[in-house]
Task: structure prediction
Amino acid sequence: MMALNPTVERVTQRIIERSRTTRAAYLDLVERSRDHGLNRPQLSCGNLAHGFAASGNDKALIKSGKAMNIGIVTAYNDMLSAHQPYARYPEQIKLFAREVGATAQVAGGVPAMCDGVTQGQDSMELSLFSRDVIAMAATVGLSHAMFEGALLLGICDKIVPGLLIGSLRFGHLPTILVPAGPMPTGLPNKEKVRIRQLYAEGKVGRDELLESESASYHSAGTCTFYGTANSNQMMMEMMGLHMPGSSFVQPGTKLRQELTRAATHRITQIGWDGDDYRPLGHCVDEKAIVNAIVGLLATGGSTNHVIHLPAIARAAGVQIDWNDMDDLSRVVPLIASVYPNGSGDVNTFAAAGGMPYVIRELIGSGLAHADIRTVYGASLAEGAQQPVMDGDALQWHPTPELSADETMLRPVAAPFQPEGGFRLLKGNLGRGTIKVSAVDPSRWTIEAPCRVFHAQNDVLAAFKAGELERDVVVVVRFQGPGANGMPELHKLTPPLGVLQDRGFKVALVTDGRMSGASGKVPAAIHVSPEAKLGGPLAKLRDGDVVRVCAESGSLEALVPAEEWSAREEAVASDNAVGVGRELFALMRLHSDPAERGGSAMLAAAGL
Result:
């Protein structure tokens, strides 16, 4: 194992120093919550009787208080394909807990919003804020103080961050995240993209498009592209919060079931009554957060995590920013090529070696912290193991030295790109981020007149009318948390891709988000401060020349300084009524900037 990379060490130490006060306060909360907080022994007889009244055969053991009672927080629903497999998990976990003399109860459910269903719809404006709702719902479930450990059942976009943020407020509890796995591979990704672009051009109809999408998203399990959901799973492995190699094992298999059994058994071994106490608040520290960033960069993960990671970190008293991510991106090479960065999906990635290979490579090259407190072993190095079934027994084998498919996974010594896929952009238009792992280097710099829009549907209308048939920087403003909840603008990917394929220089600039599926079109996103709150995007006018440069890290309106400072700002219209958006006004009003995580809840809590 090599010595830690100097930049990784420097950034980690910078985060530790920056977080010294808030982290100390958080660890004090963890200690107080264990020793003097609200726990099962402090509950009155009436409290306890309510807590186990419906627990059937487990009632006597829960009543005795002599064994761990595991709180299950589940994001199950059967509309969301990734979470549909969780339906039977609580019953399975209860059986697995009894095998080791423990009990389990469903502490609570949390909403699980599917961005795939709401993408491009008004309801997408609830998406980012659903993370805060999930965190609060997880908190409500765990607040009953009936539990000495927790298993979190969640996979997708805002759900894992929300579960983690909420559970970190109960950081004295040992906690393991339990995945359910991806669906089998469906329609090849290149074919899916081809049909989408043909539809954007009006060359195929809705029936053909629906048939294509149905062949891609076709059964239970996580969508197989490397978007936010699967990036969540990667991060949990990099932080040591999953059982090793469990992220991308498909639902309905014996191996999947045995990994859930292993997580249930393991949580009972790391409680505070034993000699191997591993509370969540100690596992999620500065080094674990750096590991999550490094994993995101090394695998070309979702753009959404430049918002989610700061929010998760804050919940544990750790303060990070986009400068940290940008510095790390300069030294962390891209060693995975998963769609939309490459042609294969997460199933192909897993078959090539998956997360055990990635962990082994990053630790071995000094790019990740091996010495974190994982839920399973002495160090993260034990996460570089492949789970396999030997008859009816689960075993872990060391990951092979060589990638099984170098079109998907490569060693650090021979990466796809020498740097990670993240760049920080800044200039007179504010601070933003750009994911370049799927963007051809010839398009890392775009300079062109802009066309300004206030809604993504207006962009689509302009495209269909032929108004964007030129070199253009498409600006979509008033899309930040304070304006409309910061929806993803994934609907723009096909038309902008068409323009780029026609030979035009095209870029997107927005204070909104792009999906974890964002790809080949350069997009400066999360621009902060947002236009609604006085950000400079509000000053742009049609025809202004805008420069987006991932090479130099610049985001500039090429307008004379005197003229720029004298300009009045455009004003956003407020039409957030319908599909419940009016109920989220409080979150829009109090949300903090994207770089802090875009959270009204954390801002109001002073975290």
